[in-house]
Amino acid sequence: MSFLLMNKNKPHSKRPDRVTMISGFLKNEIGFDSAQVAQYVSLSNSHKENMKKLFDSLRSSKDKQFTRLAAGNFSDSTMDAVASQSATNQKMVEMLMFNHLKNIRNICKPNQLAAFDSLFARILNKKMPTSSSPDSRKKTPK
Predict the structure, then answer these.
(1) Residue 27 exposure: Cα atoms within 13 Å on the Cβ side
(2) Residue pLDDT, tens place only, 102-115
(3) 77 lies in some domain
């Protein structure tokens, strides 16, 4: 037990953190220079903080949803209102992510834009398979 507690804050693998991995990708695949990488790191840190605040807020509102449903006797109108709020919350998450990608794209020099657009489209498609695609039925290792 003490071994687990002592190693609590240590990474589980020697894999680099997300910012380091993406910085390397931007440098090697898109051609970012050191100034662009530094801009990306700054953007990423800010984005991470913004996402943390948003998810903390959403966690709080998620906790209140069941209470609201119960108070409304699970009426259709209450369920619709809670579902609408959930959709609005999801839209906020998506917009924050899209704006982050846009901000990274804005760091690109004109000759890097085509590579950025092409590579990020492929990466996003790999991470977000549709329910009808063959990839959606594959289990991803955790």
Answers:
(1) 14
(2) 999 999 999 999 99
(3) yes
